[in-house]
Specification:
With about 375 residues, the protein is of the alpha+beta class. The chain is about 30% helix and about 20% strand. The chain has a nine-stranded mixed beta sheet with strand order 5-4-6-7-1-8-15-14-13, sandwiched between helices.
């Protein structure tokens, strides 16, 4: 089996950073009313700025495919041009269209040459699944290089205009025109952007590379119901009714395409299943957590940081806070792109030393899945 190295990383964040006070000027107010949830959510999540592929009038400035392509182009240089690329593996929660695939739409913008494509769907782990596909392709000798990406264009899903139909429906029924917290909660959490990494079967001759030692993925969908979802609604029995099984008018009247999250389920399982997945990896890899030098956890909100630290400590896997590396407060929760943005920032800080170990941890609350990976600086 070939060794696999991250030899370069890049990111593309659209437009200027958006402060907490500016958010509603971009996303709009639902029912022309100041949000009741906004202050509470922002106070807990610790996010100070984020990026939107929108202008202040809510007009699109970039598609998801464009965000991704811009990040990828930053990987190309004289010694590795777009004509050298063999595999393009792209992960996202929010493709611009249902069909064709996200990777195909990105490839269409690159206009380089014929390459192998992979599109990974899902939520936060879509980016890690894209990375694992590229890793396995090089490891088994299918290709000698790969570009892997994580990207999101979440802002259009959060515009107030997307909820106007539901507000109008509630008013017609003489009900309070307030959108449920499970729908509004994520409006103040999510951000746009793209990250990319270049994988090769040989490390850089100069500067650092990150050898991918392993990537482990765990799903608990077999025993837990859906927690975060879009394109449907959750029934009393816990099952998801697809938008395909609703009448067209319900698409607007029920805001079926909005992102929703079962907060009770999130609180109950997101940390405990994360520890369970780590225990499986420790046993499988004979891995000692105290040997890592950097811990890159993707957390959706700063609210979970202390809980994660304590859960790790209680399970015997304490990771001192000085080893944690996060950029949530600066870039927001960018879903499938978040781990790429952390890798890019750490890799380009100029402080990595050969032999250091980096652990990546990406939870996904969709139906509770987790990815844990180990990188080593070479």
């Amino acid at each position: 089996m070939n060794k696999v190295y991250i030899v370069k990383s890049s990111k593309f964040l659209p437009n200027e950073p958006v402060s907490n006070d500016e958010m509603e000027s971009y996303l709009g107010k639902i029912n022309d009313t100041n949000s009741r949830a906004r202050a509470v959510v922002l106070r807990n999540n610790g996010i100070k700025t984020r990026y939107y592929a929108l202008d202040k009038n809510g007009n699109q400035t970039h598609t998801n495919a464009q965000l991704t392509a811009e990040a990828i182009k930053l990987l190309f240089e004289q010694n590795f041009t777009d004509k050298d690329l063999e595999l393009l593996s792209c992960g996202t929660t929010t493709p611009d269209v249902l069909l064709p695939s996200h990777a195909a739409m990105v490839h269409g913008l690159l206009k380089n040459r014929s390459v192998e494509l992979n599109s990974s769907a899902g939520i936060c782990n879509a980016g890690m699944n894209a990375l694992k596909y590229g890793y396995m392709s090089i490891m088994c000798g299918n290709t000698t290089n790969a570009v892997c990406t994580g990207s999101e264009r979440l802002s259009p899903w959060m515009l107030s205009s997307k909820f106007e139909g539901e507000v109008a429906s509630l008013k017609s029924l003489k009900e309070e025109p307030i959108i449920a917290f499970k729908k509004e909660f994520l409006r103040w959490m999510l951000s746009d952007g793209a990250g990319a990494v270049l994988l090769k079967n040989k490390p850089n001759t100069e500067g650092v590379s990150l050898e991918i030692k392993w990537i482990d993925y765990y799903s608990y969908a077999f025993e837990l119901e859906t927690c975060m979802y879009a394109g449907g609604d959750k029934m009393e029995n816990g099952e998801i009714k697809s938008w395909l099984d609703y009448e067209p008018k319900d698409m607007r009247n029920k805001s079926l395409m909005s992102f929703k999250q079962d907060i009770k389920l999130l609180d109950e399982y997101i940390l405990s299943k994360g520890i369970e997945s780590l225990e499986q990896t420790v046993a499988k890899r004979n891995f000692k957590v105290d040997e890592i030098d950097y811990f890159l956890p993707h957390v959706s909100s700063n609210f979970f940081v202390e809980g994660l630290y304590n859960s790790l400590k209680d399970a015997g896997y304490e990771i001192p806070k000085e080893k944690w590396f996060m950029n949530l407060s600066k870039v927001g929760n960018v879903g499938a792109a978040s781990i790429y943005l952390m890798i890019e920032e750490l890799m380009n800080l100029g402080q990595l030393k050969k032999g250091q170990k980096i652990m990546l941890s990406v939870p996904e609350s969709g139906r509770f899945s987790y990815t844990i990976a180990l990188l080593e600086v070479v």
